[in-house]
Write a structure and sequence with these properties.
mainly alpha, two-stranded antiparallel sheet
């Protein structure tokens, strides 16, 4: 018998069998996320609730319940031949049955509650299964069937389940939590709300997932013009062309291209507007320079009062600073130039101080160059010219910023501005030149010889042709181009039928060929009746005409005329809303909230600018809406919710 070694007790590694009990790795199943794209408005195209994944089924139900039943009221319901006559769905049924839905795709009626909480084990009486899945189409007996379905047990239970499901304060799960809650948890719930998850960024972002409506300028059912905030849109520049591409048709703010046109029409004027911001920025670069500017201006005012150059009185000679011009604001350019004119001596003194005290050669040279530019005759001449021109257009600018502005008054103002510009073009050269010479002599600025016969850069003839006339012609041309389309629509003031027809032809998409043929006779009939109606006497505004037509129900008799008036009222005339929107941007998106996303920022802008509407919403409704959007770990205390909303 041979001896066994230690190695004989161990099996050879090559002969060893593999371990067959080793568990294989199974990848973790990905979680299904809820998306609003899963929601389908047409009930005929929806898939059954049970076909959705269990993880998102409750979210789907909650979203459909929040949206409410699909009830299209502005469509033409198809007619079907039933029992010897044509029958169709009636939109008045929506008012009688709040659960009723209609599918344009299948032309059938559905029940929202039965779709969400249909119990297949219940008896299928009175079309419960039909209203939940197939759709009801028998319009002959529709009213009777709807009434029976409204009180059947299956529908009543489905409705009760939906109401309990949406009311988190009364559902079973919430009641069990309230019963089993111990005193420590209760104290934490009532006193420790600062640690509530609703204050986390996750839930704060959840607040922005609401249905927001983008509105614009429209005429309501009472004939009144309403303007609502239109969401912000990033643009590359402030020109009308870019804004038109971004917003289809921008309102009166595109009129600001008049200023840009004037700035680029003449090289001298463009150079002038390049120096104006440099002067404002240099003088107001620091608080110390601003204080020196105000002190110098105060000394100048006292000296002028002592010499009898200016008058004193309440509201006169107020302390003011320089204002920066904006690309999209007519009034800002005029305001800046007027401040420079009034504070001329103080600005020169501050620039002299900067030139002497600055340790940087660049600052010294910049201040020296600005002083030389300001003390030139061309700078003074262009400054007075632009004050004259912008002063005329400022009347139109302020009128266009009124929210109650109508097209008739706007066209009168445009005509007045054009007449004033034409008058100064023909008769304003000599008075302007005299005013500029007086200012230059007073401030010791060299005045060139205007009678110089040699055709050089500084002659009077060159300034009149290359600066004075070019600036006026640029404004006139831009006004004619900008208002060319609506210039022929100023016809309701005198009820010119031919011009009103021209307006209808421009907006051909709103009037078909047949309506254009009927419109002239309807216009003549309306004009004759309006002249005989007492309510229209003394009415000169289109907005009032629309309101009177609604009150006297003439909008139904003269539908084409009323549609034409609506088109005229919604023409983009007023810029007040746009101005207020841009002013509100700095209040919402501060330095601390500079990384705010566009969607969240737009939602906040809507709430801020339309706060008159949101203030009418009760706090309890806001709280209920927030709670119903998804299941919450805990409900928001009533007092806390009221305090938060009141602060907003």
């Amino acid at each position: 018998m041979s001896k066994r070694t230690i190695q004989s007790y161990f099996s050879n590694s090559s002969a060893s069998t593999p371990h067959t009990n080793e568990s294989t790795y199974e990848p973790k199943k990905s979680r299904v996320e809820f998306s609003h794209s899963d929601l389908i408005g047409d009930p005929g195209k929806r898939k059954p609730i049970d076909d959705y994944q269990p993880e998102i089924r409750d979210q789907i139900k909650r979203a459909y319940a929040l949206n409410g039943p699909t009830q299209p009221r502005d469509i033409i319901f198809p007619r079907k031949w039933m029992s010897g006559e044509f029958r169709s769905f009636q939109k008045t049924w929506f008012d009688e049955f709040d659960w009723l839905e209609y599918s344009e795709y299948k032309g059938a009626a559905y029940c929202l509650y039965c779709y969400l909480f249909f119990n297949s084990s219940m008896p299928k009486k009175f079309g419960s299964s039909v209203f939940a899945h197939q759709g009801y189409v028998n319009w002959k007996k529709a009213k009777d069937t709807f009434n029976k379905h409204n009180v059947c047990k299956t529908h009543v239970e489905a409705r009760q389940k939906c109401e309990d499901f949406m009311n988190q304060r009364t559902n079973v799960g919430r009641k069990l939590v309230q019963v089993d809650k111990v005193e420590i948890v209760k104290a934490t719930y009532e006193k420790g709300y600062k640690n509530c998850q609703m204050l986390s960024p996750y839930v704060q972002k959840d607040l922005q997932h609401v249905e927001s409506c983008t509105a614009c300028r429209f005429v309501n059912d009472e004939g009144k013009v309403i303007e609502r905030f239109l969401r912000l849109q990033h643009v590359e520049s402030c020109t009308a062309i870019v804004l038109k591409e971004a917003l289809v048709r921008y309102d009166g703010a595109s009129n600001m291209r008049v200023v840009v046109s004037v700035s680029t029409s003449s090289a001298d004027i463009a150079d002038f507007f390049n120096y104006v911001p440099l002067i404002v920025n240099t003088v107001g670069a620091s608080c110390m320079r601003k204080d020196v500017l105000l002190a110098k201006h105060h000394d100048v005012l006292l000296e002028k009062i002592e010499n009898g150059e200016i008058m004193t009185g309440r509201g006169l000679n107020q302390e003011s600073g320089l204002a920066r011009p904006g690309d999209t604001r007519w009034g800002s350019h005029l305001k800046t130039l007027l401040r420079i004119l009034v504070m001329w001596e103080a600005i020169i003194d501050v620039l002299e101080i900067v030139k002497k005290d600055s340790v940087k050669p660049a600052c010294t040279g910049g201040a020296l160059g600005l002083i030389g530019k300001m003390e030139s005759f061309d700078f003074v001449f262009i400054m007075h010219l632009m004050i004259e021109l912008l002063g005329m257009t400022d009347i139109l600018s302020r009128a266009l910023q009124r929210k109650d502005q109508d097209i008739v008054e706007a066209m009168h103002l445009i005509t007045d501005v054009k007449d004033s510009l034409q008058d100064i073009r023909e008769n304003g050269w000599e008075p302007l030149l005299k005013k500029v010479k007086t200012f230059c002599e007073k401030n010791e600025i060299e005045v060139p010889d205007m009678d110089e016969e040699i055709n050089i850069r500084g002659t009077s003839r060159r300034r009149k042709q290359k600066i004075f006339l070019v600036a006026i012609d640029a404004i006139l041309s831009e006004l004619n181009i900008r208002f060319s389309e609506i210039s022929s629509e100023n016809s309701f003031s005198n009820f010119n039928v031919d011009k009103l027809m021209r307006l209808a032809e421009i907006y051909a998409e709103d009037f078909d060929i047949g309506e254009l043929a009927l419109l002239p006779n309807q216009l003549k009939s309306f004009v004759n009746r309006a002249r005989r109606t007492q309510e229209f006497l003394g009415c000169s505004e289109l907005g009032k005409v629309a309101e009177i037509m609604v009150k006297t129900t003439m909008n139904t008799s003269y539908q084409l005329v009323y549609r034409l008036i609506e088109l005229t009222l919604i023409l983009p005339v007023a810029t007040a809303s746009v101005e207020r929107i841009f002013s509100a941007m700095s209040l919402i998106k501060t330095d601390l909230r500079s990384k705010m996303g566009d969607e969240w920022f737009n939602d906040l802008m809507i709430c801020y600018n339309e706060k008159e509407i949101f203030r009418k919403i009760e706090n309890e409704k806001i709280k209920k809406r927030f709670e119903e959007m998804k299941n919450r770990r805990m409900l928001m205390p009533k007092n806390l919710m009221v305090n938060i909303i009141d602060k907003i």
